Amino acid sequence: MPTPLTFKGDKKSSKSKKRKHPSTDLSPDASLGVTHITSSKAPGPDTASSHPADTAVEEDDTWVSADHASDLAGPIIIVLPSEPLSCVSSDANGTVFAIELENLVEGDPGTAEPHDVRQVWVAQKVAGTGDGLISFKGGSGKYLAVDKFGILSASREAISPEEQFTVVPSPDTPGTFAIQTQRNTFISITPSTTSSKTKPSSAASVATLPEIRGDAESIDFSATFRIRMQARFKPRNKAHKEQKAREKVSRKELEEAVGRRLDEEEVRKLKKARREGNFHEVVLDTRVKGKHDKFASF
């Protein structure tokens, strides 16, 4: 059963855990096959300051644009070059269609965020392919597919060649991509010929929301998309946030790690070590200097 997605602004659940033994925390990452193991054991001095950093990164639910195909992981939306702007969506029946985007600033596709779970796909590299193939799982737990006639659907729970795609950077517009099928065709948009699948909010939108097909033979404007993703899954963004979060350490945490009160020079030295990655070595040296571990120098 698919895990409900959370959006920016949603209130966080504050349920207390009654079980004291290790348990599995099924977060939104569970849709990627990842679970977080939590334990009731109190963190030690050397690990207490690492949890705020992990929490800060995991709770970052802002949306950013993918810059490279290798960035794609976790929840994404595929923004279509339509007027008005829309994105690739699917329903519980496996129908793939466009839904107009509502959450964006002044019509800028680089600010788009989802307002409907049907707009969200979970991008994941296909295991065992080794050539950068990606799958897209919809909110109903089914994978996006393109058949031999170029028709899109999301009705299968397993991955075959029809559910595998190559994300190709656009040669003309940096930060945009084309999505190539295993038949060497591309997903693109075409003028709508029917309104029954788009379910627009107003009659004025019936003629403007496009149809989505997977049989384009080349990359042009209609096959060029912007892909938005959650910031916590973006590799470079995630690493930067982790580094910033880990640099924030209080004097009390440093003194707990060393086991005694510290002077200003020792605090500066330890904070610098946190930034440079040799924190534990400097902690040991500081303990030896204070003679709190008489065996450390042997």
Percentage of helical residues? 10-25%
Total count of helical runs of at least 4 residues: 5
Report how far the terminal alpha carbons are from each other.
Answer: 56 Å
* Topology order in helix (H) and strand (E) letters: EEHEEEEEEEEEEEEEHHHH
Shape: elongated
Detail the poorly predicted runs. Answer: 20-51, 195-207, 292-298
Give a quick account of the main beta sheet: strands, pairing sense, barrel closure. Answer: 7 strands, antiparallel
On the 0 to 100 scale, the average pLDDT is 78
Q: How many β-strand runs?
A: 15
Q: What percentage of the residues does DSSP assign to strands (E)?
A: 15-25%
What does this molecule look like?
With 298 residues, this protein is an alpha+beta fold. Helices cover 18% and strands 23% of the residues. The protein is built from five helices and 15 strands. The strands form five sheets. Strands 3, 4, 5, 6, 7, 8 and 15 form a seven-stranded antiparallel beta sheet that branches. A hairpin with a 5-residue loop joins strand 9 (143-146) and strand 10. Helix 1 (50-58) packs antiparallel against helix 2 (235-247) and helix 4 packs antiparallel against helix 5. Mean pLDDT is 78; it is low at 20-51, 195-207 and 292-298.
Q: In summary, what is this structure?
A:
By secondary structure, the protein is an alpha+beta fold. The chain has helices at 50-58, 235-247, 251-258, 264-276, 279-289; strands at 23-25, 36-38, 63-65, 74-80, 86-90, 96-100, 121-125, 134-137, 143-146, 152-156, 166-169, 177-180, 186-190, 211-216, 226-230. It is 18% helix and 23% strand.
